[in-house]
Design goal:
The complex is a heterodimer of chains A (about 300) and B (about 120). With about 300 residues, chain A is of the alpha/beta class. Chain A is about 55% helix and about 10% strand. The termini of chain A are far apart. Classes of the chains: A alpha/beta (about 300), B mainly alpha (about 120).
Chain lengths: ~300, ~120
């Protein structure tokens, strides 16, 4: 830090102990810490205080960190505030997603407090020399912030791809993990997705009706219906279009693999599917998409009614 | 005192704070563990699953920072097991229950660090 002014640091985490930890390790006369324990408060705080840097958790009870990031960047007043994701979402796909959204860094939990402190102090030092809208003034995120983000995102992609080529050659699993695509897989076991335990669960969930537009479906789809509804509501609320786009792309890809007679390794799992099992999974995914679209329509209708 | 020693002293103090908060976490997790143990799962169990996932996710990221590595590992296992159930890859059953029980056991062990500090 260059000592020119006090920097505002917004820490967003639904765990109080994590906020205390970050505030403690960053204790400094030149840093004014601000706190929020959910996405809504984080958005309000960011718009009111225009912090110099935001440390943002991803999984939170109301609006997740990705959505908070998206909304901040859609707002002209906050779009240039640099964001560091600090999260337990540890996959390369999540990291790439965070950086693609414009974050200047993506730090996995658990982290080393000494390293985190250095990274944050470096970011604040860069900001201290700026001359953007937060200047007191000065210090708001300007072209430098944007440039940093672009360089950070590009660097991660280049490093990841180069590392993949060096260490994995053309191994499809590595690139699948990196880009989140279902890719053909010719060998490996082909476990069945369904078993008696699933069936018992489905019977238990069968009475639940969360979306009236979905027609009656088989036992497996009831399970999908409920679990997807809960998952979508808890993690993707407010970001329906993006969620539907992702799952539509995966669905199209899997349909093509099935039609080609190929096998597929399902993203985020070790399950390899082919033949009837793949067909079954594609069918579930179609229901998943129907449910999601239905929930999106319900949310839209509710918003219209509220207005 | 050197900068790194100061930071370590703060971490030690927060480790006790973390340990002292474990009883509260156990009060949240144990009822959900019971709900998930009941045969014939319903919407209540599905909601318990989401809560267990969130709690274990949080612990997996936080506990190791304070030196509770075993708790971090068992919480990560519980998180992944719950995540698989939420995603529909597997159904709640013995593996999830075992993972939650291991996490509860490690929480109880970690809680002792708060009492004695």
């Amino acid at each position: 830090m260059n000592g020119q002014r006090t920097m505002k640091l917004l820490i967003v985490d639904d765990e109080e102990i994590n906020i205390k930890l970050l505030a403690s390790i960053l204790e400094d006369k030149k840093i004014t810490p601000l706190f929020a324990t959910n996405g809504s408060d984080a958005l309000a705080m960011a718009r009111k205080e225009l912090p110099d840097l935001i440390l943002l958790d991803v999984i939170m009870p109301d609006i997740d960190g990705y959505e908070v990031c998206k909304r901040l960047q859609a707002d002209p007043a906050t779009k240039d505030i640099p964001i560091i994701f600090l999260t337990g979402q540890r996959s390369a796909v999540d990291e790439a997603k965070g950086l693609d959204m414009g974050a200047v860094d993506y730090i996995f939990k658990p982290y080393d407090p000494h390293i985190v402190r250095s990274k944050i102090q470096n970011q604040l030092a860069l900001r201290g020399g700026g001359s953007g809208k937060n200047s007191a003034g000065g210090g708001g995120a300007g072209a430098r912030g944007l440039s940093q983000r672009a360089v950070a995102a590009a660097a991660v992609v280049v490093i990841a791809v180069v590392a993949g080529v060096i260490f994995f050659g053309s191994d499809s699993e590595f690139f699948q993990g990196l880009f989140g695509e279902d890719v053909p897989e010719a060998t490996g076991p082909q476990p069945r997705l369904a078993d008696n335990a699933d069936q018992r669960l489905a019977v238990g969930l069968g009475a639940a009706t969360l979306c009236g537009e979905i027609p009656p479906v088989e036992w497996w789809d009831y399970k999908t219906h409920v679990t997807v509804a809960i998952r979508v509501r808890s993690r993707f609320e407010g970001d329906w279009d993006a969620y539907i786009d992702v799952w539509t792309a995966r669905y199209d890809n899997l349909v093509k693999l099935f039609e080609d007679g190929a096998a597929a390794r399902v993203v985020d799992t070790d399950v390899v599917l082919a033949g009837a099992d793949l067909q079954n999974y594609v069918s579930q995914m179609a229901t998943r998409l129907d449910v999601t679209k239905c929930l999106a329509n319900e949310a839209q209708a509710a918003a219209v009614r509220a207005n | 005192m050197a900068e790194s020693e100061k930071l370590q002293a703060k971490l030690d103090a927060l480790r006790v704070t973390f340990a002292n908060g474990i009883a509260e976490r156990l009060d949240r997790i144990r009822p959900d563990r019971k709900i998930l143990a009941v045969d014939g799962l319903g919407e209540e169990a599905a909601e318990a699953l989401v809560r267990v996932h969130r709690e274990s996710h949080s612990l997996a990221g936080t506990a190791p920072v304070f030196g509770f590595d075993e708790l971090g590992k068992s919480a990560r296992e519980a998180e992944e097991s719950a995540q698989a159930c939420i995603a529909g890859t597997t159904a709640p059953g013995a593996p999830l229950a075992d993972a939650i029980d291991r996490m509860i056991g490690d929480l109880e062990t970690a809680a002792e660090a708060g009492d004695v500090a």
